[in-house]
């Protein structure tokens, strides 16, 4: 009788210890879990990886904000503010929301800084190519020549007082596809901060914005895509804390004809996909709108002009991957990355 009781007590003790261990394990682990959500908006796949008590709420609010931006700035939605600006081109100014006004005035700054390599009036040419869409094709050189006549960001008139945008010539259209994801990422970061989130990785179609560090206190590691390889194969990785990492690459959207790749970054001075020596242009900055606005233009400018421009901008760095498998970086990036592919050569200075 006594023996059985001891046995029982032992079993109960073992069960209690076991259950306690499971509970410790579960709650301990729970604390370390990120909530990961994927969603489609801005014409691309997006992912939010968020840690914190209010992660779910922050994610819901973020998705709402991104979709709101998409509704205002999509060139594919007839009711968007961008579409309305284009409909009124050559006719009258269109009053827009603060979001759209902010993006367009920032974009114009980057058009000027890149001396027109980045040009938000590129839309009529982008539409001719339809890259990544049904009907993608090589347009005739005549069609391109015709449309090039109306590509000029200097024809965008902005009015700070009534927050209106006016395109001087009929048939001109604005495309903020080269900068809107950056703006949206910055807005998501604000939503996260408002919800007390200290650790998150915001990925809007490859536009990365790291908030804080990982929960173990180490920097977020971001890989820079190998333009010659399949997605997920990196040239190098960088560790970042509170930084945006944005890349424009020839592998994002393209089609091939007789082995030649036609990608979605168009050189506004030729009307054809950019053929500079760059295949991947990464910008590291505090705000993602700056990284996005600069990465597209810098891609077109080529290594020499790109490095010169980025060196002049305080707090912004660049990593450029070239056709001849070289890696160029601005001075602030030296020693801050790890090359992970042996197929590329690091060039120190141009
Ligand atoms: P992604 O959209 O792949 O992240 P980018 O930020 O470089 O890459 O933007 C490319 C998009 O910008 C194109 O899909 C097009 O809508 C638009 N675009 C293409 N060429 C230019 C250009 N020269 N200036 C401004 N926008 C451009
Ligand atoms: Mg861009």
How would you describe what is shown here?
Its EC number is 2.7.1.180. The chain crosses the membrane at residues 6-27. This protein starts with a helix and ends with a strand. Strands 1-2-6-7-10-13-14-15-17 form a nine-stranded mixed sheet, with helices on one face. The longest helix is centred in the first third of the chain and has 30 residues, at 2-31. With 350 residues, the chain is an alpha+beta fold. The protein folds into two domains: 35-69 and 178-346, T-fold; 76-167, Orthogonal Bundle (T-fold). It has helices spanning 2-31, 55-73, 81-87, 98-113, 123-129, 141-148, 180-194, 288-301, 303-312; strands at 35-41, 44-51, 94-95, 156-159, 164-167, 199-204, 207-211, 220-225, 234-240, 244-249, 254-257, 260-263, 278-285, 317-322, 326-329, 337-339, 345-347. It contains nine helices and 17 strands. The mean pLDDT is 92. It is globular and about 95 Å long. Bound molecules: adenosine-5'-diphosphate and magnesium ion. Magnesium ion binds next to α8.
